[in-house]
Amino acid sequence: MSLTENIDIKGIIFDIRRYSVHDGPGIRTTVFFKGCPLRCAWCHNPEGLEPEPEIVYREDRCIRCGSCLTACEQGAISWQDNAPLTDRTLCIRCGTCTDECYTAARETVGTIMTIDRVMAEIEKDVPFYEQSGGGVTLSGGEPLLQPDFAYLVLERCKRKGIHTTVDTCGFVAWEKLKIVCEHADLILYDLKLMDEEKHRKYTGVSNGIILTNLENLSRLGHNVLIRLPIIPGVNDDNDNIQKIGSFAASLDKKHTIELLPYHELGIHKYHRFFKTNSVSGVRPPSRGRIEEIKNILMDFGLTVM
Q1: Which of 24, 124, 276, 286 could tie 165 with a disulfide, CB 3.0–4.6 Å?
Q2: Of 248, 204, 259, residue with least CA distance to 224
Q3: 54-109, what's its fold?
């Protein structure tokens, strides 16, 4: 299977973050793709979950002027409890209300972009890549849900000598993952839970294809950095950590594991998207617990960041 080379293909992007230092080596430009097949209970980017553009509401910016009610031709917005309330079943995400919102309390998240437009943003930072050993990272959401667009962005970057990284959850058809990753210098690969039942409970999907794809990438010799989010009460128990260590150590190539302690920075976003964060009561892990997890993994002969 080969992905299309049609340059007219467009992608849906919800953010392009410049000067990023957490999504691969050096200073990077991270392109966030909209849409994700997982529903991780701790997700800190809820704006990346749905594949289509969304209307978000920031209550703290709203001055209650009522312009959005007048603008909405679908009758999706009503006045309740001294605030505009949106009926998501009636909203067609046309953006009319956002156009009329004077304070940007209503915004459209997710922009349809061409390859040229994305590349124009990326190329602004070429001098920083050259000085720091940085480059471009495709993240999300899940960039492999838009495989053709992801492939073309990576291919264009490689032609220009820009270092490329793909940040993936791994829940994607192997043929698509294989082809897209041919143009990736580094793959950031999420690994969360080894128990399939727990994986389904906390992410909504099986981990079978995720584990198999990681085995395949390792067998082919790809440069993979395994990323392990540490969510207290979800996946930080010794049994899960030991199983992850055993699995990672069994791969054909030895890959470094990066620990990502849970943080609460994304909780405030959920209200804007009319979503609920099911682990909102979870606190970040202690530094001591992170060190314990690191030591458990290192006992398997693994390098841990």
Answers
A1: 24
A2: 248
A3: Alpha-Beta Plaits (3.30.70)
- CATH 3.30.70.20 positions along the chain are 54-109
The model's pTM: 0.89
pLDDT at 1 over 60: no
Q: Which residue has the tokens 């006992």?
A: 299
Residue-wise pLDDT tens digits, 67-109:
999 999 999 999 988 888 888 889 888 889 999 998 999 988 9
Domain spanning 11-50+111-298, CATH architecture = Alpha-Beta Barrel (3.20)
State how beta strands 54-57 and 28-33 pair.
unpaired
Residue type at position 114? T
CA 9 to chain centre: 21
Cross-strand partners of 138: 31, 166
Residues in a beta bridge with 86: 77
